[in-house]
């Protein structure tokens, strides 16, 4: 247990006398460690947190910053080093860090700060930790990020913290939102080329490239009709393949029709882009957003469902977007697809913000709704963006909460994200904006 960042000077007779006088006159400030920092606010409560590992899905980084002394973060067991990091949200001067260890404590660790999350400066170093509560006071570190970096475990288990409390002051300014743009489309490469004036996917690819986003999403049925590798090379690769390295795809039902095997051509063409975590479903972060890419052909696979639950439990970002092929709600020819409802229920429970789909060949946006189709402010916004190049479908049965539908003009979704909001436009191949969605704030 540690109460100060450095050892106090050896007391003298005069200092002991002064201390006694202060106590007798109500000098209770001496009873609180870090009293010089008492006026500094708590900066870390509820802030986004990440870690080197988690023991399981119930012991996530956020649990160390939730203010609940009964919850905790725990790393994987038996491995050094491990770390726990919090984003304070703005450049800050850190004056105090209080650590409440569980039985799995650190014998040796550092408290570090960073301006960018990449280069770290040590604020405090422990080499003989014994668990309990470590209260580092009198600090003067500057940075937006703080981490506890464990280098030697005190037990055979991992590292586990009930709470990490970071006190200090911000620099008085709020950093501007970190913004980025994404282009998305589904149902893309019909078996035609630019030599045909009626071939649409060369035109949607050109428009997508003109927007020049941070990256591209595909919502399945990337290649028609059977998504063979030879067809990918002959059609998709000639248009959308120009920015393949910046594409983060998911498969549609046409990817399962390949005579060489379900998803065979898709996997061969995209490789690790489509299987970065070894499965046709994966996740990644950008800014304050967590993106989840799913294979809706196998929503009946318990492994994918469990992975989704675990992935969302680990998420430390403030906003969540998911994308897959089959829409739960659609006013087009395929209509509503109940196969997606269990996934919607998981996403809704995790306070996800946005779902992107293809399958029906039209553009449509919905008001926020829950998995049962009830309009609600805390619901998920769904966008169908299946106008990437395949033949359009008619609007057939308009669904409740559908706000806008376009069938006919091909185009792409231009999605604009900040740390706290999202908005979008449906942009036609002629560059004209066909629809502008509302700006929503993340849940």
From TrEMBL:
Pfam family, one: F5_F8_type_C
The keyword Signal appears for this protein: yes
InterPro entries for this protein: Calcineurin-like_PHP, FA58C, Galactose-bd-like_sf, Metallo-depent_PP-like, PAPs-like
Region (Disordered): 39-76
Gene3D superfamilies linked to this entry: 3.60.21.10, Galactose-binding domain-like (2.60.120.260)
GO-annotated molecular function: acid phosphatase activity
Recorded superkingdom: Bacteria
UniProt entry keywords in alphabetical sequence: Signal
TM regions (residue ranges): none
Protein name per Swiss-Prot or TrEMBL: Alkaline phosphatase
Taxonomic classification: Bacteria, Bacillati, Actinomycetota, Actinomycetes, Kitasatosporales
């Amino acid at each position: 247990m540690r109460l100060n960042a450095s050892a106090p000077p050896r007391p003298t007779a005069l200092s002991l006398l002064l201390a006694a006088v202060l106590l007798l006159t109500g000098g209770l400030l001496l009873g609180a460690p870090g009293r010089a920092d008492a006026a500094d606010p708590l900066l870390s409560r509820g802030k986004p947190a990440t870690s080197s590992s988690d023991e399981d899905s119930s012991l996530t980084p956020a649990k160390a910053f939730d203010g609940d002394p009964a919850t905790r973060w725990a790393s994987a067991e038996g491995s050094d080093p491990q770390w726990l990091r919090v984003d304070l949200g703005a450049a800050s001067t850190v004056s105090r860090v209080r650590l409440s260890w569980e039985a799995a404590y650190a014998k040796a660790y550092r408290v570090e700060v960073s301006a960018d999350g990449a280069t770290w400066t040590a604020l405090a170093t422990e080499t003989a930790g014994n668990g309990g509560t470590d209260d580092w006071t009198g600090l003067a570190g500057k940075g937006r990020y703080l981490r506890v970096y464990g280098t030697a475990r005190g037990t055979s288990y991992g590292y586990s913290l009930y709470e990490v409390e970071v006190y200090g002051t911000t620099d008085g300014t709020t950093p501007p939102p970190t913004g980025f743009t994404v282009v998305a489309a589904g149902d893309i490469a019909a078996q035609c080329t630019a030599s045909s004036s009626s071939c649409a996917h060369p035109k949607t690819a050109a428009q997508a490239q003109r927007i020049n986003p941070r990256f591209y999403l595909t919502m399945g049925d990337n290649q028609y009709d059977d998504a063979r590798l030879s067809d990918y090379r002959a059609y998709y690769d000639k248009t959308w393949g120009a920015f393949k390295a910046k594409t983060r795809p998911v498969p549609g039902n046409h990817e399962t029709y390949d005579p060489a095997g379900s998803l065979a051509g898709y996997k061969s063409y995209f490789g690790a882009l489509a299987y970065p975590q070894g499965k046709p479903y994966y996740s990644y972060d950008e800014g304050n957003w967590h993106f989840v890419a799913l294979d809706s052909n196998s929503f009946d696979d318990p492994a994918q469902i469990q992975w989704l639950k675990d992935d969302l439990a680990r998420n430390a970002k403030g906003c969540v977007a998911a994308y897959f092929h089959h829409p739960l709600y659609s006013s087009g020819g395929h209509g509503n697809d109940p196969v997606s409802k269990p996934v919607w229920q998981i996403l809704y429970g995790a306070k996800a913000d946005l779902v992107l789909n293809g399958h029906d060949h039209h553009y449509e946006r919905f008001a926020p709704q829950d998995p049962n189709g009830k309009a609600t402010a805390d619901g998920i916004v769904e966008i169908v963006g299946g106008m990437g190049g395949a033949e359009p479908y008619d609007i057939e049965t308009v669904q409740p909460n559908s706000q806008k539908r376009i069938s006919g003009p091909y185009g792409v979704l231009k999605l604009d994200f900040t740390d706290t909001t999202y908005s979008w436009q449906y942009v036609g191949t002629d560059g004209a904006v066909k629809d502008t969605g509302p700006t929503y704030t993340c849940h």
